[in-house]
Input
Amino acid sequence: MGRRRKKYKKVVKRIKKIPDIFQCPHCSMKTLTIKFDKINVPGFKLAKITCGTCGLYAEMQVPDIYENVDVYAKFLDRYEAGDIEVEFRKISEAGEVVGESS
Ligand SMILES: [Zn+2]
Output
């Protein structure tokens, strides 16, 4: 049987969209951002979690391969469990967290 199956190889280039703004577990606003900093621990980096609304701030040491979604999931877990130290910082008008200033 010479029936050939046409093989459709659909190549859909999908850009992996990684959200960079998350919902804050404290104020429920979608203003939580996660940034990374280098640290002196091989294979790890420091994730800084900041909410632009309530000023929530937390730091977490995470494996280097973590994307911010992974950090967010882990952060939520630890936040729910009360397992992470969270502080609230003042927010400047630009929406940046500025530490203490008074
Ligand atoms: Zn918040």
The CA atoms of residues 40 and 46 lie 10 Å apart. The mean pLDDT is 87. Residues 24, 26-27, 29, 51, 53-54, 56 surround zinc ion (CB under 6 Å). The two ends are 84 Å apart (CA to CA).
